[in-house]
Design a protein that fits this description.
The protein has about 850 residues and is α/β, with parallel strands linked by helices. Helix content is about 50%, strand content about 10%.
């Protein structure tokens, strides 16, 4: 932990007090500590629970930059968080001072305060100069990394590492993270690869948390706000899993009926077994047999757990209402489970007539903003019926406007319960009095597993509203699939550390490439958190080995010469490593990965024999999509030459769907697109086989069942029409279409940069036709190269406007609406209702739905 009192000059202290006076509440000690570090020019990493006010530290950085006339960049992992922060800061500093860049929205990108996703910031760093920082950041004083614990996210984590490593040295970093067990390690790593960072750790929740178990229709206090256990429930929960394991019954649902039938059958056997007249021996044998059977039955009864049904969501909400623990967020894994739970609770009414009237008014205003053809969508009707009852559902498949309507009504206090997937817990500001964790298991893309302590802490972080609730409540309903005591002990255990998910990517290599300087790339890769953690693990293992040998020697035990030599060598290695602490070393695994990636780029013609980037390499450098190498291959091989703009949009859409669940899809591709699909499969096969040879797995494969959505939308089909043709949710389709537009615009921009590079095409324009001074073979080779260059120039010149037309075709109706927010708002009784666009999704939600169906 950092020091609790940071000494500051009186002038700086006065400045901090001026900032603090803007708030109606006193600043917490950890907030003052972090702000003092920033005021003295240090970067800072704040690790604190959700809802404790760590964003106030970032607000100081913004305020300080504003006072200095400098700029600040605020990065978040999700578009929804970026949009929310954009609205919040615009309300404070004015619309002219705050910009937003999230890929699909670019608004005032040179403003004093710019909100952007971390991916956009990383892309900007790599495109404009990498290590020394782009010139556009010369006037940026602070960069905020909100939700820094995303470093461990497999999909987004590498983006965070590259952004931190490549941030220019003059920038002060403000890292905001949930509480993690290795915060000191993260601070040490950032200090090593960027600049010294002060660590501030705050462990206490803003509102103390109580844990409840909902069992047999009642709320039972399991652990109080001080962390003391109150009630225990040994051998409760998990009965269905136990029954399945030991084959007690085929159908848990019919357990009670089966139990009654067995008891009747056993009773009938006991009364009819003995005849009226038997010998003494026969009677004795019968008595012994009866006793053995009775013992067996008793043992079986003891082994079989009592039958309980999982509670209905409406039961849980009713108990929470009676205990004055509403409003609540009710988390469940999978969209289907979320919607079904919300609909099952619709038999209950949680609002007053006055509230119902107000909710109806807000629904009416929102529906007027929705395109007429989308007002009859199934999820619109479902929510319109639920909301007046004080209930709602929220997941990644929901229309953007519906999400914000739910969030707004909840924030205004009109909703009593929102059923949601865990994506809602990732930063969206929706605190509640209680949180129900409806399932302690989740699907992580590979298997069903118990929640980690970090995930449980993230969900329950929303329980308890600061300044309103004395305690927050986390409620776990009884489940026949989870033994309570065992599960509760594991989810409330010590937090797991954040581990690096860094991988080397083609695009990053090409942006960081320096001719003849592979060491530069090695230094960048060695700067990753992954390499730092590998080094730390090696160092700790070596120290343990040396200490073990030393203990054996102190105790007079015999140590083999081989072991002594190994310990001495390890000690020398550690000493050398300590001397080289300032130098970054790339591990053997990291070196092999880097060399394999460079080999792929050379073998596929992205880096030429002269060590310069080829046309392919310069094009891929500006395409940041994971499947960028496939897209470049399609372009440069002429496979897209004959496509219309609508067909180009369709091809790009294939790279946006990465869920491998089976899809019901009635769309049919035309012959031209079928041929492109065949060609793409060949390209994909070639690239992936080469990656396998190089020990890599970087390029995602397209999903065979996904196609037709973008083409149909580009040709005017309604959202309802799309829903009838493919089994995707409304929000999923919007997300995929918006991601397709982003990709189309990214490719168009990459082609534009390539065509505008005069140094690349000047040879085509200025080459003398006579070729004086060159041998015949050389002249022939040069002319062939120039002809190929000319052909590619013409191809790219044709494709550039087609990609622009393709994205324009998709930009209509609700898609256009979702991409023009968050400027669009509706006003209700003088209050703004933003029509937001949130396209972030959990890639495992749909797989969870598939499991539930099975």
């Amino acid at each position: 932990m950092g020091k609790r009192n940071v000494e500051v000059d009186p002038e700086i202290q006065e400045e901090i007090e001026a900032f603090a006076s803007r708030y109606p509440f006193p600043l917490d000690t950890f907030q003052k500590e972090a702000i003092a570090h920033l005021a003295q020019g240090r970067s800072v990493l704040v690790a604190a629970p959700t809802g404790t006010g760590k964003t106030l530290v970032a607000e100081y950085a913004i305020w300080k930059a504003w006072q200095q006339g400098a700029r600040v960049i605020y990065t978040t992992p999700l578009k929804a968080l970026s949009n929310q922060k954009f609205r919040d800061l615009r309300a404070i500093y004015g619309s002219e001072a705050v910009g937003l860049v999230t890929g699909d929205i670019v608004e005032r990108s040179r403003a004093a305060i710019v909100i952007m996703t971390t991916e956009v910031y990383r892309n900007m760093l790599l495109e404009e100069g990498a290590e020394d920082g782009p010139s556009s950041l010369a006037d940026v004083a602070y960069v905020v990394f909100d939700e820094l614990h995303y470093l461990s996210d497999p999909e987004r984590g590498p983006v965070w590492e590259e952004a931190i490593i490549c941030s220019p040295p003059h920038v002060q970093l403000v890292g905001l993270s949930a509480t993690v067990s290795n915060a000191q390690e993260l601070a040490d790593w950032i200090s090593r690869v960027h600049r010294p960072v002060a660590l501030v750790i705050h462990q206490e929740r803003a509102v103390p948390l109580e844990h409840y178990y909902f069992l047999d229709g009642k709320l039972h206090l399991v652990q109080d706000a001080a962390g003391r256990r109150v009630e225990r429930f040994p051998n409760v929960g998990g009965e269905a899993r136990l029954a399945r394991r030991y084959a007690f019954m085929r159908d848990w649902e019919g357990a009670e009926e089966e139990k009654e039938q067995e008891e009747k059958a056993a009773s009938g056997t006991a009364t009819s077994e003995r005849p009226g007249a038997t010998s003494v021996a026969t009677a004795t044998e019968a008595a012994i047999s009866d006793r053995d059977q009775e013992k067996a039955r008793s043992k079986q009864k003891r082994a079989r757990p009592p039958f309980r049904r999982a509670p209905e969501p409406g039961e849980v909400l009713t108990a929470l209402r009676d205990a004055d623990l509403l409003p609540c967020l009710y988390f469940l894994p999978g969209r289907r489970a979320v919607e079904e739970a919300a609909m099952s609770a619709a038999r209950h009414l949680f609002t007053t007539p006055q509230e119902q009237e107000r909710i109806h008014e807000e629904i009416k205003v929102w529906l007027e903003q929705l395109p007429p053809e989308d007002r009859n969508l199934q999820q619109v009707h479902a929510l319109v019926n639920l909301l007046p009852r004080g209930l709602a559902f929220h997941h990644a498949g929901l229309l953007p406007g519906l999400k914000v309507l739910v969030e707004t009504l909840f924030a205004q206090g009109h909703l009593r319960a929102v059923f949601a997937t865990d994506t809602l817990a990732l930063g969206i500001n929706m605190p509640a009095r209680s949180v129900v964790v409806g399932s302690l298991s989740k699907f992580d893309g590979v298997e069903m597993r118990l929640l980690t302590p970090n995930e449980y802490r993230q969900l329950t972080g929303r329980a308890g509203r600061r300044g309103m609730d004395v305690h927050g409540a986390a409620v776990i309903p009884y489940s026949p699939w989870e033994p309570f005591e065992e599960a509760f002990a594991r989810i409330t255990d010590e937090l797991h550390p954040v581990y690096s998910s860094f991988v080397i990517r083609y695009n990053s290599i090409l942006n960081l490439w320096r001719e003849g300087d592979i060491e530069h790339l090695r230094r960048i890769c060695a700067s990753s958190l992954r390499e730092y953690q590998r080094y730390r693990a090696w160092e700790e293992q070596g120290l343990r080995f040396i200490q073990q040998v030393e203990r054996q020697l102190r105790k007079g035990r015999k140590v083999s010469a081989r072991k002594l030599k190994a310990a001495e060598e390890m000690a020398r290695s550690l000493e050398r490593s300590q001397r080289r602490r300032g130098q970054l070393q790339l591990s053997r695994e990291g070196k092999e990965e880097l060399e394999g990636t460079v080999f792929m780029l050379r073998a596929l013609g992205y880096i030429g024999h002269d060590d310069r980037l080829t046309l392919r390499g310069r094009l891929l450098r500006s395409i940041f999509h994971p499947a960028g190498i496939l897209i470049v291959e399609l372009i440069m091989d002429g496979i897209l030459d004959e496509l219309t703009p609508a067909e180009l949009a369709e091809v790009c859409s294939w790279f946006t769907f990465d869920n491998d669940r089976r899809l019901y899809n009635r769309h049919v591709l035309n012959s031209r697109l079928k041929e492109v699909r065949r060609e793409l499969k060949q390209v994909e096969k070639r690239v992936c086989e080469m990656e396998e040879m190089a020990g890599l797995s970087l390029t995602p494969r397209i999903v065979p069942e996904f196609h037709g959505v973008a083409l149909s939308w580009a040709r005017g089909m309604s959202l309802n029409g799309l829903l009838r043709r493919i089994d995707l949710a409304e929000g999923d389709i919007l997300m995929l279409l918006n991601q397709t537009i982003d990709l189309l615009q990214q490719v168009q921009g990459a082609i534009g940069q390539l065509l505008d590079a005069r140094d690349l095409w000047s040879a085509v324009l200025s080459w003398p036709n006579d070729g004086a001074g060159l041998s015949r073979n050389t002249l022939k080779q040069v002319r062939r190269q120039l002809a190929e260059l000319q052909e590619q120039h013409e191809r790219l010149s044709r494709l550039r406007p087609l990609f622009a037309q393709a994205s324009a075709l998709l930009m209509r109706g609700i898609i256009l609406q979702s991409r023009t927010v968050p400027s669009m708002v509706a006003r209700i009784n003088g209050e703004e209702l933003p029509l937001d666009a949130e396209e972030d999704s959990d890639p495992h939600e749909a797989l969870q739905d598939l499991i539930e169906e099975a």
